[in-house]
RNA sequence: GGCGCUAUCGUCUAUCGGUUAGGACAUAUGCUUUUCAAGCAUAGAAGCGGGGUUCGACUCCCCGUAGCGCUGCCA
C-alpha cells in the first residue's frame, strides 16, 4: 500500500511553527518512502475559520517548500460524507443522541472532579429508546463493561494504553450541522487513505477516541506517530503569549532553508548540524525522532540563518532581504556580520547617504582637530590613488601613513565615520571600494565640511 | 483531581551495559586588530532521587519526584 500522510491545519490563525514542524516531518516521511504528502484544511469551526487564514497557511507552506500532492481538501466541502457516516453509525446503534444539557454535563464533570474521580460521561441514553430520538449531541457508544483497553503502538513512543471504562462516549457532532474534530478527522483520514498519522503529542489523548471511531466505522486505524512539542523557554507549550509563533512572523528575518533546518534538527537526530532538505530526506527515520519536547532556541536559529546567508549570491541575498539597491560587492561584507535578514538595514550607508553627529569623527585617542587634519591627508591619498588597482595597495599606503602617524585608529576611525556615519562597520577600505572613488571622496569632503 | 507522555551541560543533542560521557548553539578567554563581525584556538559546563538486575548502569526494571500535555457541544 502506498504511504500517504497529511498535515491538517485549522484556518483559525496563521500557520503555527509547531504545525510547520509537524508538516516538515510528514513531508520528509513521505519523500523518504516515496509516498504522498497531502494537505487538509480543517475548517469545520465556521465561526473561527477564515479564507484569509487559509490562504496565509498555504503561502507559508509554499514558502517553506513543503509542497503537497493533489488538491487541497477542505472539510467544509465534505459535509455530505460526514452526514452519511454519521447516519450509518446512528442506524447501526453505534452512535446515539445524548439529550443532556450543557449544564447537566458540566455539573457531572464538577462532581467527578470534586470526588477525585476520572472525568467522563457515560450516557444512559446509549441503549435507550430516548437515544434514538434526535436532539442534542450525537455520541459514539463506548463499550466499557469489561477491562477493555484501547491500545496502539506509537512509532515514536511505543505502546500506549487507555482504559475504555474511563473514556467518555465520544462526542461526534452537535446534531448534523456542527460536526466535531475527532469524527471528521477520522472520516477524512479513511477517505484519503492516510496510512500514517504523524502529529503533535497533544493529540495522544485523542487517539483512543479516534481508534474507537475507526472501529465503529469498520475500518482499521492507521499507524500513529506522536511528535514532541516545541517548548517555550519556560518549558510550556509554545504559544502566542510567548511571542512570535506564526511562520509568517519569521519571514522577514529568516531564510526558509534555515527554518527548515532548524525545525528538522530540533527534534530529530541527523548526522550533522547543517543539512539540506535532500540530505534530511535521505537520513530521515521516524525512529530517529525524539520523544521529549525541545525548547525553541532563537540563538541557534540565528546562527543557522547566518550560515545560510553567507552562502547566498548577491542576487539571492538582495531578493531575500528585499533591498534591490544593495551593491553586489557589499553583500559579502553584510552577510559576514548578519544574523537576521532585517539586520541588512543597519548597512544602509552602502546605498544611502549617512547622517551623523560631527563629533563622531573624533578618534577616541585624539582630538577632533587632529582627526579632521588626518582625514584631510587621507583624502589626499585617496584622491591620488587609482581605484583600478587592488584595494590591498590602498591599504598598504594607508598603513604606511599610519605608521608615520603612529596611530592606525587616527587614520581609519575618521574615514569610517565619514563613509558610514557609524562607530561599527566593515573595514573602511572595503567600503571605499564598494562606494567607488567619487562617492568616497564626496563623503570625505562632506565630513570635512568642504 | 483523573488519564497520558517525558527526564544527559544554560539550550538542542550523541551514547543502542564497559567512553577521560562526544558534538553544536550560547558564554568566557586568547590569537588578529582601525571599530564591529567573521575565522581559528582554548576553557568552563550535564546523567532528577531511591531501590533493584548485573562482574559492571546514563543506558534495563520498579518506586518516587518534577515538568509538560490532554481533561470542550475548539482543532
TrEMBL record:
Q: Which GO terms describe its molecular function?
A: ATP binding; glutamate-tRNA ligase activity; tRNA binding; zinc ion binding
List the EC numbers from the record: 6.1.1.17
Q: Where in the cell is it found?
A: Cytoplasm
| Domain Aminoacyl-tRNA synthetase class I anticodon-binding as annotated: residue spans | 323-448
The chemistry this enzyme catalyses reads:
tRNA(Glu) + L-glutamate + ATP = L-glutamyl-tRNA(Glu) + AMP + diphosphate
- Identify the residues that the record assigns to the Glutamyl/glutaminyl-tRNA synthetase class Ib catalytic domain, covering every copy: 2-303
Superkingdom, according to UniProt? Answer: Bacteria
Q: Name one Pfam family in it.
A: Anticodon_2
The protein's enzyme class: ligase
In chain numbering, motif 'HIGH' region lies across 9-19
Main function: Catalyzes the attachment of glutamate to tRNA(Glu) in a two-step reaction: glutamate is first activated by ATP to form Glu-AMP and then transferred to the acceptor end of tRNA(Glu).
Protein known as: Glutamate--tRNA ligase
